[in-house]
Every structure is written in structure tokens, then in C-alpha cells.
Amino acid sequence: MIQKKVCMIGSFGVGKTSLVARFVRSIFSEKYHTTVGVKIDRKVVEIGDKQVTLVLWDLAGEDALTTVRPSQLRGASGYILVVDGLRRATYETALDLQGRVGKAIGPVPFLCVLNKSDLRERWEVTEADVEALQQRGWPVLYGSAKSGEGVEDVFQELTTAILKVPNVRDDTASEATPRGI
Amino acid sequence: MSLASPLREVASQDADKEVPTDPYQRLRQLLLGPEQTAIAGLQQRLDKAHLRAEELSRIIAEAIVLRSRRDHALQNALNPLLEEALRVSVARNPQLLADTLFPIIGRAVRSAVANSLRAIVESLNETVERSVSWDALKWRLESLRTGKPFGEIVLARSLRYRVEQVFAIHRETGLLLAHVAREAENARENEMISGMLTAVQDFVHDSFVETEGAELDTVELGEFNVWIQHGPEALLCAVVTGTPPRELRNALQRTLEELHSNFASVLSQYDGDTESASGMRPLLEACLVGQQPREGKRTASRAWLWVALPVAGLLLALGVNWMVRRHRWNQAIENLRAEPGIVLTSEENVWRGYRLTGLRDPMAADPAEIIRRAGVDPAKVNARWEQYVSLDPRFQLPRHVAEEKARIERQVILFRVNSSQLDPEQLLRLDDVENSLRSLQGYASASGRKLEVEIAGHTDPSGQEVKNATLSQKRADEVIRALTDRGITVDTFSPVAKASQAPFEWKPGSYVPELSRRVTFRVLMHNERK
């Protein structure tokens, strides 16, 4: 069995927890977010004949009061940046977060999920914004926690990318360039 | 296109250079000019060391990274150099290293001292707790007997805890390396638990502790303890029920060290593949120590029986002994109370014996004998008897006999010098003797006994003793004859000639001759059957 640590990152209320809630098994309650600052879930993904267990570190949302702790990012094989399409501020935060996370743990695979795709007509995040992300080399996916749309793909794609990374321990977090998919 | 035009081009390009006049040379230059220049450049780069160094400097960092990813050859090659460099540096300028270490050495020392102190306090607590217990004594004996260290025995015999589960967790990623449990449970949750344990530690560390190197090492919840040992690459978490001893911490630490030495490459390269860490399981399984507290109690109670049984036996024996003695004493008291001529006024138990007070008629049976017959040692009885006369009818006859006997034995028949003739005034005394003898003879006949009266003749010490002997015999015979004449018949009259051997002494050494010339009586009662 192969395990990989994956962090769920994004602003407060973007739907990180909801995004995974329907697809993962959890034994810890929501309380953990406000107390310990992280809730850990587990998601099994099948890539070809390989079964990969993603240990999802669902970090407390970044807002004025909480910031992402480097210790929680440590050792992650990849991360998922979640943006709430309805709030443009979460898009800005994601840009900022990506830079900080990249510095903390180096160029590991990541995905950007634009959540709440079921309410596309009310989005504040524009097509131009999405293109800007893609131009940065970010892999962008649309997802909806409500309908479940795109969520499986998020995990599939990220896991595939993680498995492609050569098996070396990367202690040199000096390369600040993002290594998107 | 003709050949001439590129040639012309080359010629025009090289117009500023020196043009060889030799047509062959010119042709060579025209054909190979750029290669020649390149070769010359390459040669220069190879020949000039500073150029090579400059070149190498551009790629050396990348090369080191690449190589160190592939294997450890570079580290191994550099190791001796670094060590030597460090040695030389310290020898040359110790202050430099001191300054470098200064910010961390205090913390390291404080942490080490704090850890040691905590260990000492914990072990002191447990020592005090155990040194006075029965278990401790047993364990000390076992330690002496087997030669094993006391601590090891305590660990093996402390039956109040049990290690339920052991997690080995990769420190950096929080991923599960291996997990063992006493009972099969949902293995899937362990991955989340190990992640959460790591997260909780980070949380505690980030929230409350500033010190680098301080770690969360115990989580307590009721009778559940999670003991966490920290290594550079991995954590060992033991879920323990009950009260684990300090020694368990050492055992966990040893296991963790073994994990680090046996699985160094797995730990440093861990990519989440649990197969690579499956070899850790036997080491973790060895940590599932401890026994059910219930079994411990049963063992303890069995051990207690070994003490309780002899004690109970001893108590029982003491109790029976006390009851027997009590019964005998009560019997003795009862017998004393029933005995005529004995009045018991008080009786009490004292330390190792008894005390009795009361009244006793001289005619009564010997109280010591009564006590002895009841089974009580008379030596243990401190008795004080006041004499009294009992009016008990059973004493009337014996008392009468005793009085008559005393009366006779008080009588003395006196004689004149050298005479065995009874004087008339002495006959009055003889009357008295006669009366008493009749009474006694009647009593003896009635009670089936024999009455023997010993009649002793005496003389004063003057004169020859041979003659005195004859005279004293005559005096005795005379009295017997007189009594016989009066019709006294006793079973035996025993005349005894005492001569002057028993003179009447008023006080020692001053006898009275008049009172020494006499006949005295002694009354003996014999049981006829004898």
C-alpha cells in the first residue's frame, strides 16, 4: 500500500471540507479545525493497478486569524488549492498561498480547484482570471461540492502527478518555480 | 551557386585578419578557419586552470545535488575531509566553534538536564512506592536470585499495564510506517490516527512551546496513555492502558533506536510505501508487553495466601490453646469453690498466671493439689490464704480427732530422779491421756484405721547414758502398763527409749532437768489396708 500526504489549502469557507466530505472517510469531527487547526481524512485512489491512499490534511481555512502553519505542510507530496468562484478575494489568497507553500515545501505537484461550479453564473472569478492561472502553469479544474462534479478528477489527476515525481527526497526547497501538472 | 562567392564572403569577413600568402595555407584557413579558432579556444580553456575552475564553479552545486541524490558516495568521500577540516578549525580557533554552538548549547544542556531530572523524580517516586511493598521485596529477592537487574524484573512483573497498540510514524510526513495491535481493528483508521497524532503534536508544539527540541511525549486520557518517543526520522507511539512503569519508556526508546539503525535508508527515503517498512513489525510487536491487571491481582492474592495460611494456623492454635487453658482454670476455680474449708474471695488473670485470695481451714485439702489436678500448673498461681475455722460438718470429726491427738501429744508425764514410778499427781495427767485415747481408739475403729501410740521415755542428761537408756525404757513401759491397767486398748503401744537424747530445753543449751525426766506421746493413725 502506498500512502501520500496531501494538503487541502484555501481561504476560510471556500469549501475544502465540503469538497472532500462526500468522497472520503473521516473519523474526526469538524471540531478539529477550530481546535487543532487540521482535520485528517483518507481517500483511496486507483491509478492503473496501483492503489494509493491519500492522507488528506484538511487545513483550517486561511483568514485574518489563522495562517497556514509550515509544520502542517511538512512532508506533503502534493496539495490542492481551493478557490471559491463566488468570491474573488479567495482567488487572490490562493495566489499568495501558492507562493508561500512553494517556499515551505518546494515544488511538489498541486492543483487549483475552482469550487462552486454549479453557481457559475454568479461567479466573481472571470474567465480572464482562469486564463491568468493557466498561463502561470497552474493546472485548473472546476469542481462542485454540491453536485460532486469534478471532485474525483481532482484526486485522480493529483495522484497521477504525484506518482510521476521521481522517488528522491527533495531537501532543496530553493527552486521557487511552481511545478504544476 | 558557384564556390567563388562563399570564398569571397569568407575573404571579406577575415579582411581585418592577417592573410597568409601561401595559397595552401590560405585554402586551409578558408576551409578550417572557424574550427581552428574553436580548437584554440578549447585548448586555452583546458590549459588555463583558472578558466577550468571558473567553469566548474558554475556547475559544481548542481553536480553535488545530482550525485547525492543518486547514492552516498559523495558523502562518504567528503566525510573524512570534513572531519579533518573541523578538527583543524577547532585546533586553530576554538572560539569560533564555541561562538557557533553558543546559541544552541544552552538549550541542549537544559533539555538534557530537565529530562534527566524528570527521569530521576519519576524513578524516585516509583522506588518509594515500591520499596515498601511486598512486591518490591519479592522482586528484590528474584533479582538477587537470578542476577537480573531490579528494573528488568519490575518491568516484567509490573502487571498493572498493557501496551495495546504501537504506531511507527514517519516524522516528516506524518505517514504511517507500521502498526501493530493486540486485537485486530480497522487498519484503515491507523493512517488517519498517525496523521492526527502528528498534527496534534505540531499543534501543541506551535501553540505552547517555544523551545526547539521540546516534544509532546505523553497524552493521557483516563486510563489510556499514549507514550510518544521521538527520533530524528520516526516516532514511536505506544497506546497503553493502566499505569505503565518508567522502564517502558526505555524499552520504547531502545526499539526506536533499533528502527533507526536497521531501517536508516527506508526512513530517509520513505515515500509512503508501507511495504518498504513492513520489516519493522517484529520490532513493534516486541513492544506489546504487559499483562492483564486481573491476572496480576490473582497472582498477588495467591502469594498472600502463603502468608495468610500459616498466620491463620498460628492464630487458630493460639486460640485453641487459650480456650483449653481457660477451661482448665475455670475447672480449678470450680473445684476450689466446691471444696469444704476453702472460701475463694477473689480470682483474677494476671500476666502469665493467676492470682487467688481466700480463706482456708487448715483441715481443708491442699488448694495447690486441687489446682494441679485441674491441669493448671500451681507454679503459675499466686495464692494467699487466710486461715479460718470452717463450721462445715464434714470437718467436725476430723477436727475432734486432731484436737484429741494434739491434747495427748501435749501431755508430759514427769518422773523423779532415777525413778520410773508414777507419782500420784501425774496420774491426773494420765487420766486426761486415757480419755483422749479412748476417744481416738473409738474413732480409729469406726473409720477402719489402726491407732498407734508411740510412748517415749526420757531422762535428764546426768548419769551414764546406758543406765539412762534402761531408765527411759522403764519409764515408757510403766506408762504403758498404767494405761493398760486402766483398760485402754489401742492397736499398738510403741515404747521408745530416748535416754537423754531429747532433753527438754527451755531455750537452746539450757535444759531444765526436772522437765526432762518424762514420758511423751505421739499419736499415729494408719490406714488398715496398708
> Can you count the beta strands of chain A?
6
Rg calc of chain B: 63 Å
Order of neighbouring strands in the sheet with most strands of chain A: 2-3-1-4-5-6
Question: What name does the CATH topology of chain A carry?
Answer: Rossmann fold
Shape of chain A: globular
Mean of all residue-level pLDDT scores of chain A: 81
Gross morphology of chain B is rod-shaped
State mean pLDDT of chain B (0 to 100 scale).
Answer: 81
Query: Uncertain regions of chain B: pLDDT < 50 for 5+ in a row?
Result: 293-299
The residue fraction in helices of chain B comes out at 55-70%
* Strand/helix succession of chain A: EHHEEHEHEHEH
Q: How many strands, which pairing sense, and closed or not: the largest β-sheet of chain A? A: 6 strands, mixed
Number of helices of chain A: 6
Termini separation of chain B (Å)? 181 Å
Quote the beta fraction of chain A: 15-25%
> Please, what is the CATH homologous superfamily of chain A?
P-loop containing nucleotide triphosphate hydrolases
CATH architecture of the largest domain in chain B: 2-Layer Sandwich
Strand order of the largest sheet of chain B: 2-1-5-4-3
How are the secondary structure elements laid out?
The complex is a heterodimer of chains A (about 180) and B (about 525).
Chain A: E1 2-10, H1 16-21, H2 31-35, E2 38-47, E3 50-59, H3 70-73, E4 78-84, H4 88-105, E5 110-115, H5 127-135, E6 140-142, H6 151-164
Parallel strand pairs in A: 1-3, 1-4, 4-5, 5-6
Antiparallel strand pairs in A: 2-3
Chain B: H1 4-13, H2 23-47, H3 49-70, H4 73-92, H5 94-131, H6 134-146, H7 150-157, E1 161-170, E2 176-181, H8 187-208, E3 218-221, E4 224-230, E5 234-242, H9 246-262, H10 264-268, H11 281-285, H12 293-338, E6 342-350, E7 353-360, H13 367-373, E8 381-387, H14 396-410, E9 412-414, H15 424-447, E10 449-457, H16 465-485, E11 492-497, E12 505-507, E13 510-511, H17 513-516, E14 518-527
Parallel strand pairs in B: 7-8, 10-11
Antiparallel strand pairs in B: 1-2, 1-5, 3-4, 4-5, 6-7, 9-14, 10-14, 12-13
Helix pairs in contact in B: 4-5, 6-7, 12-13, 14-15
